[in-house]
């Protein structure tokens, strides 16, 4: 999933009406949410773990998904793709 999809799932689960409220819940600045939505290329591990905690899912699911999206190198991309098959 793209970062925006993870963010939306967390917002929905917590019945939040704004990205500002989601940012406060995660513990980041609201402009970080905006940047995640615009970039759409992965989030840092802190944010990924907080999203997983909010969603009450295995933290590795979000971390691995984000690492796959951030990977530029073909070998790294393949490494994370294999992990996705196991964890997602």
Short description, anyone?
This protein is mainly α and 88 residues long. The chain has helices at residues 3-13, 19-26, 30-39, 45-55, 59-70, 74-87. The radius of gyration is 13 Å and the shape is globular.
Structural notes for this entry:
The protein has one domain. The protein has six helices and no strands. The longest helix has 14 residues. The radius of gyration is 13 Å and the shape is globular. It is mostly helical.
List the keywords:
about 75% helix; single chain; 6 helices; about 90 residues; mainly alpha
Q: Count of helices?
A: 6
Largest sheet: none
Mean pLDDT: 93
Domains counted in the coordinates: how many? 1
Low-confidence stretches: none
- Integer-rounded radius of gyration: 13 Å
Number of strands: 0
Please write the string of helix (H) and strand (E) elements. Answer: HHHHHH
